[in-house]
Every structure is written in C-alpha cells, then in structure tokens.
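re: the backbone from monday

yeah here it is again, tokenized this time
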C-alpha cells in the first residue's frame, strides 16, 4: 500500500466530515501514535490516541456556527510511504487555518504523524 493523491483527498474528505460531525473519536483514529504536533512555542508528543480525542472534544466551541467547511489540499512532497500535505481550511467565508500534515502509510490507510501550523 502507498499514499496516492486520491488517498490524500479521501483522507481529508473524511477528516472534514469528522470535524463537521464534531466526532473527536473518529479524528483521533486519523492521528498516528506516536505523533508530533508542532506549533509556535509548543511541541506536543502524542503517545496515546486519547490525547487527540480529548483535545478535539475540548475544542468544539471554536467551531460554533460552522456547518460547512472547504479545503484546499496540495501535496508538497511524497514518497511511497509518506506525504507532506499543505491544507488550508476555509469556513465562515474566509481562510481560517493552514497546516502542513505529514501523512504516513498505515495498514488502514494514511494517518497524521506530524502536524505543523503554517502562517
């Protein structure tokens, strides 16, 4: 199995659906363990899927009123087993979030191994 452009698109379609459904458990399954979250001034090592689930479960208020989301997905680089993907999330009429996701190939499909905030 390898990461293809269609598997990247399908992955982020599922991710967007889980965000709109406020489904923290589904989102947590999309993150690899161990994983790494890199934000300015903060590095989080993810060692348990519950960390991701609890983070999202506690952050739904930032999406109050959001019932649709668009995304711009661009693969910046890839190997057969990993891809670096730039995703801009648009909701409430404007670009809101932009991240670099490093996806890794897993038996059940891609998972996020490293998440980096882009400005």
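seq for it, each position gets an aa:
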């Amino acid at each position: 199995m390898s990461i293809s452009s269609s598997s990247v698109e399908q992955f982020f379609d599922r991710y967007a659906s889980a965000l709109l459904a406020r489904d923290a458990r589904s989102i947590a399954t999309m993150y690899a363990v161990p994983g790494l979250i890199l934000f300015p001034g903060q590095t989080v090592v993810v060692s348990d899927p519950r960390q991701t689930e609890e983070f999202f479960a506690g952050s739904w208020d930032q999406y109050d009123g959001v019932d649709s989301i668009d995304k711009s997905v661009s693969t910046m680089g890839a190997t057969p087993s990993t891809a670096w993907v730039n995703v801009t999330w648009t909701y409430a009429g404007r670009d809101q979030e932009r991240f670099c996701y490093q996806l890794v190939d897993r038996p059940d499909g891609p998972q996020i191994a490293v998440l980096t905030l882009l400005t």
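Residues 5-117 form a domain with the Nuclear Transport Factor 2; Chain: A, fold (CATH 3.10.450.50). The beta strands are 31-39, 42-46, 70-78, 82-91, 94-106, 109-117.
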